[in-house]
Amino acid sequence: MFSPRGSDEVSPDATLMQRLLRRDVGAFEELYERHSRIVYSLVLRILRQGATAEEVVQDVFLQLWRNSAQYDLSRPFVPWLLTLARNRALDQLRLKSERQRRREEQTEEFPQIASAAPEYEKALDEKRRAERVRALIGSLPLAQKKAIELAYFEGLSHSEIAASLREPLGTVKSWIRSGLLRLKEGLRATS
Amino acid sequence: MNSNDQFRELIEAYAIGSLDASERAQVEAHLAIGCSDCDKALQEARWLVSQLAYLAPNAEPSDMLKGRLLQTVRAEAAGPWKQPEAVRQAGVPLWMWAGVAALLLFSAYSAWNEKQLRNAVANLRQQAEAQQAERQKLEQELHASRVQLHEAMIWSDPKSVKIMLRPKDPKMPQLEAMWHPEMGLVVRGWKVPSPGEKRMLQLWLIPKAGGKPMPSMTLWPDANGTFTAMVENPPDAMSDTQALAITEEPIGGSPQPTSAPMWVGGVT
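YS: structure for the whole thing
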């Protein structure tokens, strides 16, 4: 069931972001310690180049520091941070003009993310949820998993994925949707 | 399948960013009308998509990155508060405003400068025209002075020969001329009536040998009937000329007389 989180529940990240508004360097350091690994892992997976990945991670956290006032404290923090990092990393790719144009149209300086997290988010801590996500996606057929990875880590469109995998467009569309729905059902079942 | 179902099927792909342009535009148009069901589905899909980050192999950034970040953050925390970057990036960057301001200033200065230059050029042109008019006026006055001086010299020089031109009509005034062998011929008249319409007076030199009259200058009395005219190089020498005659001719003069002489004066 997807329902807004109660306003009285303030996550540790939201508390740190509140401190960041007061230019609390300690809060920034704590946020970095909590999330730099997953952010760096994601960006490195997309860019596959360590130095460039560190530059993007640096940009993401500096943006967090400098524009903390623009973050909506009621929104789930980690998904928002990961979306921001993914958008920045995909911007770096700039492999094809069409892909770049699509990314520029979709990418915002501060990305839109769920205004509230699903209830099942709380059922697992981050480490266990990560394991669950890997297990669920890992259980998909190889081509379907590859299609989802191309969409998420490469920023490819349905047409580009179909061309890359030499599969019908309709099949690719179905793979991506059904894979994400399976992930949702799997996370929900865990809660 | 209703329209919501149709768009709900696209929501996950929209959240991951894999829709092609046309489908993406359809979804955005649908979301723009405020479909709360699809908006809610999109929020969950975005959260779900963000979880795919955990598929990335675990990696750890270098300690140097943390060091650089903290150094920057501490320096900024100690310094004056700066406008958030996103705010500046969302609008027009400051340097661009500065560029626009500089461009506007330059444009304003250029327009002002151009106006100034135009005014200066117009003033210079007016001054040049005034100077040209003044020069022409001076040249005319100088020429008139030279003519007057020349006439005075002819009139006063002892070598000059005075010739009286008597009218055929006794009611007409007598004219006089002064001919210098080198300096030329001057003819004067007073109270001379104006010629008829489209007519003027013309001087002729009548040769001694009995040939055809030699045409010379044309004359036009002023409103008072006065005229003074000079010929620096008469068409014939004084020694070869028997008499001077004046006739009335069409405007522009004639190569040979078309009317009877009104004044005639013998050259002695």
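YS: worth flagging: Chain A touches chain B through 73 residues (CB under 8 Å).
IM: good catch. Also The radius of gyration of chain A is 17 Å.
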